[in-house]
Amino acid sequence: MSDTLHINLLSLPESPGVYRFYDKNGKILYVGKAKNIKKRVSSYFTKNKDSWKTSTLVKKIRQIEYIVTSTEADALLLENTLIKELQPKYNIQLKDDKTYPWICIKKERFPRVFTTRRVINDGSKYFGPYPSVKVVNTLLNLIRDIYPLRTCSLILSEENIKKKKFKVCLEYHLGNCKGPCEGFELEKTYKQYIENIQYILKGNLGEIIRLLKEEMGKLSDELKFEEAQRIKEKIETIKRYQSRSVVVSPNVREVDVITILQEEKKAFVNFLMIRKGSIVHGMTVEVAKKLNESDADIINFVLLEMRNQFESQAKEVLLEESLDVEMEGIRFFVPQRGEKKTLVDLSKRNVIAFRQEKIKRELLNKKKKKNNVIESLQKDLKLKVKPIHIECFDNSNLQGTNAVAACVVFKKGKPSKKDYRHFNIKTVVGPDDFASMEEVVYRRYSRLLKEEEDLPQLIVIDGGRGQLGAALKALERLKIEDKVAVIGIAKRLEEIFFPGDDIPLYLDKRSDSLKMIQHIRNEAHRFGIEHHRGKRSKNAINSVLDEIKGIGLSTKEKLFKKFKTIENIKKAEIKELEKFVGKSKAQLIHQFFIEN
Asked: Helix, strand, or coil here: 463?
């Protein structure tokens, strides 16, 4: 399992709802329902799979999305809606363990209407999926009883028909087809059939039921009770199909819902589209704020985008609170109770869940990027092991004075500031960078060895061949030169030097490896300069204040802690000095700076 998918699982809510699986190309794989989304989705990734089909599905999953619902019953109904809307590639763990059938109206001249289990993006129109083959066959039989449709796969172009390439088949002689293959039926008439069929497939079954009842009555009058019973069963099947399930209530017919969650630099907005009591679309988006836009500004922007995208014609939009939002022909309403308030609460839960998932995903991406950089470093520097623990050394001195060195530590790609160390150069006289580097490297790792602490996998030396050679001498004295990889990086051309190799490595300026090395080197330089400046300031303060008789170390520390610099002490009023060092010492300090 990838790190991205792992954090995706950890960030799922423990709420009822519907989850969706997508493959690496962003194509929908599966839609399912759950009483507890996190538990249900996590169960797919256990070692013991229910079937080989489940294993196949899990191997393809690269992204997980979800919609939170109020109850498990709502999740079941929403699952059905989304399956019809999203047309997932396959649903393995459905309750009836069947692949849903569809009704296809083929994109062709004199279109065929038939059942299929495969949805192909060829311009044809697909209706479904349907809960069972029985419903599909009943619909198709009823359609064919009413409309004489062709069932052949002949290419009925005008040219082929004019050339009389085809002859009518048995279906024509049985009265099931009007013979468009020989030009016996007008294309205009056939198109009207298809328009009526689409109308029926979209849910208007009243006309079919009326015709069936007429036929059933006729059979009853003719005392054909068994045939009449079969027609009655067909009517009952169609009625069961006709009665649409709802997520909220059939009373909430056609509304849009929108809620918002604001942050300093961005906002999250959830949009729900309700039709005939069902949620037919649900989407949460992130908006990058350029200025300090209000809730009304952002909702105006997102709502217009969502309504255009989903072709919404709803005349009512539900909001969480009253906002200065206006759109022509639309009523904005803030429900206080009832089913509409439930919808607003549902939208808000989804936007909160999206934000939480976003935060966790960003943390994962940072972690993943650092892991990738570590792997890139190992590959580009040809290291034997991953450089999980990296240390970098930098020397600082100014005209041979206050020589110091710094060591910064990175673990798993992140600064480990508690492990940073400063070094005052003790054994080297004058500005000798090479000798200073050898001293601090030796001191650092002799101590780690003595305390039995872990050594780093990679040491980075800020400098070229000279500094690298000095560091290597220290490692050789400690007999650990074969246990730790060490490189030097020269600032001018960002050359990477290796021990015993006169030819430097030039990494791509845009590579993550070079950027990581530069970041570590710059951090060591910053940390070293910070210590060097502090030491210089302290020495400067000591050199001036030491000249004042009666001012000891404790007093100087108080002054420096409060005023920071000699200049600030010099400018301070005598009364202000008295507050920190007393009247007599304040007088000494004040008088000293007047005279000097």
From this structure: coil
- 358 phi and psi angles, rounded to 5 deg: -60, -45
Distances, alpha carbon 481 to alpha carbons 176, 408, 448, 476, 485, in Å = 89, 20, 14, 5, 8
Number of Cβ atoms within 10 Å of the Cβ of 492:
6
Contact assessment for residue 185 and residue 168, using Cβ atoms and an 8 Å cutoff: no
The letter for the amino acid at 430 is: G
Q: Looking at this protein, which amino acid is placed at residue 233?
A: E
Domains and CATH numbers, the chain: 3-242 (3.40.1440.10), 254-357 (3.30.420), 389-536 (3.30.420.340), 546-595 (1.10.150.20)
What single-letter amino acid sits at 564? Answer: K
For the chain, give the number of residues: 596
pLDDT band (50, 70, 90) for residue 392: very high
Of 253, 428, 413, 284, nearest in space to 347 by CA: 284
Of 89-103, 277-291, 375-389, the least confident: 89-103
Helix and strand counts by DSSP (H, E) for the chain:
19, 19
Do residues 62 and 2 lie in contact, with contact meaning Cβ atoms separated by under 8 Å? yes
Compute CA distances 30 → 47, 70, 94, 423, 456, whole Å: 20, 21, 10, 60, 46
Give the tens place of pLDDT for each residue, 18-56. 999 888 888 888 888 888 999 888 888 876 655 566 777
pLDDT for position 555? 80
CA atoms of 499 and 488, how far apart (whole Å): 9
Q: Write the DSSP symbol of residue 180.
A: G
| Selection from 11, 64, 71 nearest residue 35 by Cα | 71
Q: Which residues neighbour 549 within 8 Å (Cβ) at sequence distance 6 or greater?
A: 588
**Alpha-carbon dihedral of residues 52, 53, 59, 65, nearest 10 degrees?**
-140
Neighbours of 84 (CB within 10 A): 18
C-alpha 100/C-alpha 164 separation (Å) is 39
**What percentage of the chain reaches a pLDDT higher than 90?**
24
Residues 443 and 428: their CA atoms lie apart, in Å, by 13
- Specify the pLDDT at position 52: 66
Q: What are phi and psi of 406, to 5 degrees?
A: -130, 145
